[in-house]
Write a structure and sequence with these properties.
Blueprint (H helix, E strand, L loop, with lengths): L19 H7 L7 H16 L3 H30 L2 H7 L4 H16 L3 H23 L8 H33 L3 H28 L7 H30 L1
Length: 247
Amino acid sequence: MWRLFPPDSWLPPALRRDHPLVRQHLTRLRSDRLAPMLGATAASLLVLFGGFGLPVLFGLCWLVLLVWQAAGAAGRVRSAYAQGMWDLLLAAPFSRRELLLSTWAGSFWQIYPGRLTLLYRLLQVLAVTAIIVVSALLPAFPLQYGPLVVLAGVLAILAQPAAELYLSGMAGLWCGVALRGHIGALALAAGAMVFYWAGVLGMVLLLLFADPEGLDLGHVLAALLLPTLLPLLLGLGAQRAAERFLA
């Protein structure tokens, strides 16, 4: 799809791969060191649990991707501070928002598309499809709202990965600019993503299993759209907080 609509043709300039700040991050080596480990974990889960291992693998990939992006963004800022580069970037003719967005974009394009993100997207498609199919098979579910549920599922498949990478990256950038210690920034970024992951996972499970008699339309739509809308709002808040901190 991206070959038909190249991102650099429609994204804002600060997010394009030809932006000078984004290019600076993309010149660094891409890290796929976690991919072999996750591949071995996936094989082990499938051998031990069969199809029941897929939800566990999905949750694991989801968590790893969030923590990896957040800790990477925080570490990138702290490394730039340590090397004296961050002050030079602040003095460059870029707005604070452009600096944050381009730093996030450099992090994003380093891991997307990659083996970890592709595995996560595949598992997310399976999870969303399962929610749609199971809800449609329940006798109490109003089938006339099926197209609305499918539309929400398509929106979740298309937007959720980018929305959550936006949140994790912006949260990591805020930790990097707000905390002076390298280890402290990494720990706070990773801890925030673990807290977010556990909270969203718990809310989705609660929505799906709250009513023992079946799912209603509101629960299904909330379970599909919550992991997309919530990270967008939280990510915007983290971005604004980082901008104010740099002002």
